[in-house]
Amino acid sequence: MSRRFQRIAIVVLTVTATSACGVGAASPTPPSSTALPPATSFEEYAESFCAAFDALFLAIGNPDTGARSELHMALDDAVAALDAEAAERLATEITGTLEAGRQDVARAGGWLPGAPIMDQLDRVFVAFEAYVAAKSAAAMGDPGAGDPQTALEEAGGIDAWFAMFSLYPALEAERPATTQQCANVPVSP
Q1: 151-167 b/e with 16+ CB inside 10 Å = b?
Q2: Are 124 and 161 in contact (CB under 8 A)?
Q3: Which of 39, 61, 75, 96 has its CA 20 to 30 A from that of 19?
Q4: Residue 51 and residue 57: Cα distance in Å, rounded?
Q5: Is the pTM of this model over 0.85?
Q6: Cα(57)–Cα(154) distance, rounded to whole angstroms?
Q7: What percentage of the chain reaches a pLDDT higher than 70?
Q8: What pLDDT score does 144 carry?
Q9: pLDDT tens across 39-98, in order?
């Protein structure tokens, strides 16, 4: 996949994420704050994989469809209103949710066949943290606040998102034949 296509795709995803509203999607459950030992089986990997995506959907929304989460929409509203206090509070909540999701990513990465995918998903989470920080800085009137999209790209979010999906074929032989979709989000481990 060309670098230009990757940039265009992530711009489309992010623009859609900041302008679309998810309708009819199940609300993900808040991520677990209890650290568990690294996954050693596909079942443990799948549980943590789904919990990580729950956190991503709760904090940001669905990057594939551009549907924003309630938290993300509220942050955008606070940024538009230059409400620094609300933006900071929401950015802290979103970042905390992403950090909790990163714990699930780390646990899922304990299952060696899934580790490369989880390495990329962790990069996606870190990139979205940079994206949220840029939005929050803008709401605070920080003259050095960067563009959120640029922050996402520079943190490697685009490359990581596409790399994650390019790794799925290698996992096929390790997955059970009948893998179920996650309970709260439209993805499958």
Answers
A1: bbbebbbbbbbbbbeeb
A2: yes
A3: 96
A4: 10
A5: no
A6: 22
A7: 81
A8: 79
A9: 999 999 999 999 999 999 999 999 888 899 999 999 999 999 989 999 999 999 999 999
Report the 3 state secondary structure along the chain.
Answer: CCHHHHHHHHHHHHHHHHHEECCCCCCCCCCCCCCCCCCCCHHHHHHHHHHHHHHHHHHCEECCCCEECHHHHHHHHHHHCCCHHHHHHHHHHHHHHHHHHHHHHHHHCCCHHHHHHHHHHHHHHHHHHHHHHHHHHHHCCCCCCCCHHHHHHHCCHHHHHHHHHHCHHHHHHHCCCCCCCCCCCCCCC
Angstrom distances, CA of residue 150 to CA of 6, 27, 50, 62, 71: 13, 28, 28, 19, 21
Q: Indicate the residue type of 147.
A: D
Pairing, β 20-21 against β 67-68 = parallel
Contact 155, 183 (CB under 8 A): no
Which residue type occupies 48?
S
